[in-house]
Amino acid sequence: MKIQKSYTATDVHVAGEAYRIIKDGPLIHYTSIRELNEQFSLAYEEEINFLLNEPRGFAGLMGCLVVPPFKSEADAAVIFFDHNGTVPLQYGGIAAVITALLECGQLKAKSSGEYILETISGVIGVAATMKDDEVKLVKLKNEPCQVVQTNVPVSYLDLKTEVSLVQADHLYAIFDKAELPFEIEMEDLPVINQWGQKAIEALEGKHAFSRVILMDHSQKNEGKIKTVTFRPDCYIVRSPGFGTLAACCSYLIEKGDIPPDSPIENESIFNGKLTAELSAQFEAGYEFSFSARGFITGMQTYVLDPADPLFAGFLLK
Known about the structure:
317 residues; alpha+beta; 17-stranded mixed β-sheet; 40% strand; globular
């Protein structure tokens, strides 16, 4: 076998969301993370397809390129990317990267447990608790998120309900599960998928949104909610979602449905869990402190045989 390309990656999942972390790539010149971000989609186009598309990846896989920091106070710099190019800050990606760097020994553990990662969205502080050389807990805070609109009537086919819009890392459209005759469980996945497609079609062309959340808050008094989050292409986000959790907590606090000083756990349909607690409230919105843990799932060397007819990969959604 001839090898045309070869990349070593560390795979990490955070509450079910998978991240592929690389620390090498095409040698291009850049002097800032903004310059790297601007060049990335074109300079790394082959690597994006190579590392994220099938047969090596899948539709929900996110990529993280780790490079030395540009700012003196940062420990590392990170570019996040998906199948279409670079994407803004990924809170789950921060947890994945800090876990991989510490557990693989590429970042020396600090007694303070405090680290700083440089991203295109600015420097992000993150706390990592280690025990026996394992990262047991990662804590980080979100940018403030704000409730934009509540109880907006939605009518489409047999879907007659209300939606609320919350701006977090995405613009989330939140639907209440209470009136629906199914549960957010794996056995109800076919009907959940049908509902998600209908909700997205109901919003398209009428309301701006970038994610749709179906939220079950029947156990909010016990500090628990359950959600399923759809992308506009109907793909179900695998994680309970840092942004999903922040959006739902903001909505529930704004309505007075939960006390602002109590932690909330969000469980996904895949039983992944994330916890958030309100850390500050600004005019710009609510800031939450998240607790999560990343798990390394593999360290692989991916190679490209120039004779491979599927060299650009493919995606089934």
